[in-house]
């Protein structure tokens, strides 16, 4: 079996694991993101919807599982549906991506973090929180990977960013750890491109600084890092050798199986030997290939890479990338056929070479590559993953469903009987009677039950006396068959089929009263075949009149009108920004643990006894109350009339009094503005300049304005001179009568200390 050879580190959250690069950098106009642009979907400064002549993508996503979608300027899809795209800003999008990771046993996601000190910063900051929430909800590990491209002041700024923002996420139970240390990625040192012009000294300083912070540092390095040629600058070997883990970049370097094999011989094997000799973990990249460039070969290209990196002895695998629709190397669900690609777009689908591939094929392929890395399947150059799963027209209704039993012999749980593996089995405690029951999830007409024991000859022939019962409600049971002594004989597969002439049930129970081969009930597979009852597919009506009945800074109380259903409503699911947060049985609930002064969107769906769910109710948008003495402006989107150098307006809401905004010099008036996210009643503003005495006393003349829509402003406080004095902390407080506003703007018309508007902190409070 395959396994990591000569690992410098034991298995953790990146060693011995599959990691996917996660961009999370797609936004759409109107999605509510601070960047308010078609971010990474279109060119033209991202302000115009993407179209065939204005785009940055080379593949089209499968849009069927996204709650929100945004209409583009592409022609309709070839099936006639509108050409829409997703936004990473929607929590449901991130939740869906991380659910796909969980469902395909993808272990860890590396969130790409580019320079956050410009206009992208507020969106990137919020994306880190969204990824954290999705990772925690889906039990997928994640970590921050800094992409240092074009980050010219990275040596100091990346340290500040970690200390003031990103290190807080280490508290997440899902933040990746390796050797007991939080993982941090640094991508881009040593590359020869002009966008990464760093010298070795500053790069080594940053690597060692993160290690001194107690971090395990993963380095994304050039393909030819070890030799210092081609895409690698010379003189960086000391930087590369300082990493805890090395991951050479591969996108654009190989395009087919032959090139992958050449890479194995000329780079993978000697790279691994270099790392083994120095105690460095080696994490090579594996990529699926660009769709429209026809690199993928229906998975053979990607599988050959899995085979090569594992036989070379790698310590982990980095997938380039999860959602990279810009390069076309995404493994996220992608259009299967041209039917779901925009007409006349020039884009191709996963079946471009004539082989039908399901939209989740490369997720499944990645899951199988991970199993080969972990030794759960044998090392093989033959791809085990089928491109298209053929749906069984007569499926086993019990496979993977909820199952319970009267008792369990430790190590042999009832779930073994519905896992599809005849080699694992459930065994009760010794003594009779015993039972095992499966919940099919909805009512079905049962035609037959198939029972299995492990097929090995060591399981000698035995008779088990079994009765089959069924129930539609889990309380009242009807006898379907038996009790009868059924013979399990290894010579005939240790399998018994019990036909059910007539039986309707959601819950199917087997009662055991004897076993001639062992003093306990035993079952390797419990299979149920039949058809879902047609009448039970009808969903409940949509809950109506979703209403806010109360709120605080951290909670929201809701009520709604009851739904109706042909088999009866059993409960409701309350969704917060698309994610389920409560499952009440009645028509009201209170959601707690919310963030003060934050906008939320709630919907409710109804669920019936057969497991069907209604369409969501109309959304209810609620903003929680502001908490007393909480700075409502902290981390919120800002705007400005101008700034000089890199002293942008985001510095005024970062919580760091040492950083500051400064407008263009010698030009007044100037203004700075913060968007609180929703209209909130405010009554106090605190303004700060950096506290060191080097900032001499100065008077800034300014007025305060407010707006609920960002375009029409009214004066809250008239123009006046405010003295900033370092002996009193360089702080000014302005109080006024409570005013409901979303946008707060300061208009600055003079500054006696410098010919520009200056502000290190712009704080807004409820009162």
The CATH superfamily of the largest domain is known as Glycosidases
Could you give the distance between the termini? 66 Å
For the record, what CATH class of the largest domain applies?
Answer: Alpha Beta
Mean pLDDT level: 92
Helix-strand category: alpha+beta
**CATH architecture annotation name of the largest domain:** Alpha-Beta Barrel
CATH topology of the largest domain: TIM Barrel
Region (Disordered): 631-653
Domain Fibronectin type-III: 542-627
Protein name: Xylosidase
Organism: Acrocarpospora macrocephala
Topology:
Blueprint: E1 18-22, E2 70-71, E3 84-85, H1 91-103, E4 108-113, H2 121-138, E5 141-147, H3 154-164, E6 177-178, E7 181-187, H4 200-212, E8 216-221, H5 237-242, E9 245-248, H6 257-278, E10 281-282, E11 285-286, H7 300-311, E12 317-319, H8 361-373, E13 402-405, E14 426-427, E15 434-452, E16 462-471, E17 478-488, E18 495-499, E19 504-515, E20 522-523, E21 525-532, E22 544-551, E23 556-561, E24 569-576, E25 579-582, E26 588-591, E27 599-608, E28 620-623, E29 638-640, E30 661-662, E31 670-688, E32 698-707, E33 714-724, E34 731-751, E35 758-759, E36 761-765
Helix pairs in contact: 1-2, 3-4, 6-7, 7-8
Protein name: Xylosidase
Region (Disordered): 631-653
Domain F5/8 type C: 390-531, 613-767
Structure description:
It is a single chain. The protein is of the alpha+beta class and 767 residues long. The protein folds into 4 domains: 17-374, Alpha-Beta Barrel (TIM Barrel); 402-532, Jelly Rolls (Sandwich); 544-623, Immunoglobulin-like, CATH 2.60.40.10; 638-766, Sandwich (Jelly Rolls), CATH 2.60.120. It is built from 8 helices and 36 strands. The protein is globular, with a radius of gyration of 30 Å.
